[in-house]
Design a protein that fits this description.
This protein is of the alpha+beta class. Helix content is 37%, strand content 16%. A three-stranded antiparallel β-sheet has the order 1-2-3, with no helix packed on it. α2 (60-73) crosses α3 (90-101).
Length: 142
């Protein structure tokens, strides 16, 4: 694959700063979790891609997997509620969106979100249809 565009992912900057040293792969390594490019060569047994196909690798799948694993870890079930701190980051917003995609009794579960970073993002967070707004406003007053 020939890389056409790349983004700096938070994991890349943490790696460069040495924050991930305990779990990081040994150096030298090539940074970059989020890239887009074009297939320039395929093996003889490859049938899903062909030369010229536009492809990408991004962190969104990792964020949504992390959010989903959170639901599994806490054994999210009918009657349970979730508090999301933030709500506008990748994993936090996906937790809320995943909950909105559930069927039946799980969709009735509530999520309380406390936006801690910036008041301009609060409206974005409050637009989700599953949030206990009164609870959030109470937390803001505290």
């Amino acid at each position: 694959t020939r890389v056409v565009a790349a983004a700096l992912n938070p994991a890349d900057s943490k790696r460069a700063l040495g924050v991930l040293k305990d779990t990081d792969s040994p150096l030298p390594s090539v940074p970059g979790c989020d890239v887009a490019g074009v297939v320039v060569k395929v093996g003889s047994e490859v049938s899903k891609f062909k030369v010229g196909d536009e492809v990408y690798a991004a962190s969104l799948p990792l964020a949504i997997i992390t959010a989903y694993q959170g639901f599994e870890k806490v054994e999210f079930s009918a009657g349970k509620s979730i508090l999301v701190l933030g709500g506008t980051g990748g994993v936090e917003s996906l937790v809320i969106q995943l909950r909105n995609s559930f069927d039946g009794s799980l969709k009735e579960n509530s999520i309380a979100v406390m936006e801690t970073h910036c008041s301009s993002k609060a409206q974005f967070v409050l637009e989700y249809d599953c949030i206990q707004v009164a609870f959030v406003k109470t937390l803001w007053r505290l």
